Amino acid sequence: MGGETIGCRIAKIRKNAGYSQERFAEAIGLSRKAVVNIENDEAVPKADTLTEICRTLHVSADELLFGESNTEQFSKTMERIQLLDNDLQNRFFEMSSVFLTGLETIQADRNEK
Length: 113
Hints:
mainly alpha; 434 Repressor (Amino-terminal Domain); 7 helices; elongated
């Protein structure tokens, strides 16, 4: 889903979920014309509409906005890690732990400001 627009992603996910434009519009509280405009990138959904779209389609805002869910990214990363031998897997997790500790420290500093 990488280079697609948000409208294309919404249309694709909507179709995969089995919604017609009419039924989807009803579910998110918009007119069919508004859905057509969003899917054709002639309109950008407001924050509350985006929330309803995500809720209705059972996807994250990241997936709609950026094209790949965190779950998909995590799964791909885990598949790559599993291809490594045990020693390299252990090294990866040790390094990840150190890196994560550093990120947590940065987050804590940001929260204090």
